[in-house]
Amino acid sequence: MKVLVLDISSDYAHFRKPYTTTSALTYSIPPRTAVLGIIGSILGISSGGFGKSEHSKFFETNNVKTGVRLLTSIKKTTFNLKYLHTKNGGSILVPVECVVSPIYRIYVSGNEDFLAKLESVVKNKECYYTPYLGISEFLASVSYVGFFEGKRVDEIPTLVDSVIYLFDKGEIKFESGLNLFHETHAVRMDCERKVQEYSEIVYEENGKKIQLLKKSEKTSVISLVIGEQKEVIMLV
């Protein structure tokens, strides 16, 4: 399996949790739907307009799978952002929680032609749209890491470097010295932006490895050698 690896960073990131109202809380890790949106902006794939997610069909057709690894410790802050009342006029200050100076390693697999095009665009810094991390003011820097041959890991338990998607059957080992957190992420949407599938995800606050005891059939565990370092990742 071929895997394209990118590093994406920004001064701030905000991936809004949909169930918050009076304040805008953020996920620490970009959901898979956000990762696909970033890839879509890099390639110039149209979502179909406001309230649409037509690019999801493109990624399904090209058998795209992604994974995320945290390269920095999670730190958050809150800003008061001014929003306009489009109906009544005036403005309102809304507290918005943000991840500070995040760096995420993104792993992408898929059809050969799709990966070749994405690799060319990223290597030559020719993004079609300007990528950002959740809010348009949080412009993202996209760095090409490399194109690697991945080997499927069948021997589990194993230590995993990336975020772990549990779905319905995944299990991890809780160990002292790890600051483990979980979030519920949207994994798949239809063309009308209706969520078709969710998953619990687990990450370590400082990016440390997590021992996977059991994985869902919906995920793949892959081993890569990047430079002199071996990375074990989960794709979904």
UniProtKB/TrEMBL annotation:
Record's keyword annotation contains Hydrolase: no
Keyword Plastid (UniProt): no
Identification of the protein by name: CRISPR-associated protein Cas5, Hmari subtype
Family matches, as Pfam families: Cas_Cas5d (PF09704)
Signal peptide residues on this chain, from the entry's feature table: none
Top-level division of the source organism's lineage: Bacteria
GO biological processes: defense response to virus; maintenance of CRISPR repeat elements
Keyword terms: Antiviral defense
Originating organism: Kosmotoga olearia (strain ATCC BAA-1733 / DSM 21960 / TBF 19.5.1)
Coiled coil: none
